[in-house]
Amino acid sequence: MSADRHPLFKPLVFVGGLIFGFGLGFSHMARPEVVLNFLQFDDLGLPFVMFGAAIVSGIAFALLPRIRDAAPLTGDPYERRLKPFDRNVLVGGAVFGVGWGLSGICPGAAYASLGVGNVTILWALAGMFVGAYAQGYWRSHTQAQGTAATRAD
User: Fold this and answer.
1) Is residue 78 part of a domain?
2) Which residue range is the domain that position 141 belongs to?
């Protein structure tokens, strides 16, 4: 990202977060019981919310690069950033899915869930932070060992 951001960058990101959180609350996706009902095939409202968001995002990603060369607030060029499908993606996705199924909430909706009064979601948020920290520690530790091993050769 560019260091010279538009002065409205942070306020607009905040407004976007408010709209996102309001949408999650309004659609009841910030309630873990709704997500768990979806995962048990009892309530199929979640795919409609997800497809609605995917359609809006897809249109924006298809049209904006044709209208402008760079993002209006950051000045960064529009480009695809592909991550290779490797073991880390597969294992991380599986762990994320198990955590989502056990807690009934994904990270974005967890914050919105606080806004609708679900204070017990703090346990899930704490778990997310501890898990992210543990993964970061593990990755930096294994990379440090790999660097030391290549230096020894």
Assistant:
1) yes
2) 9-152
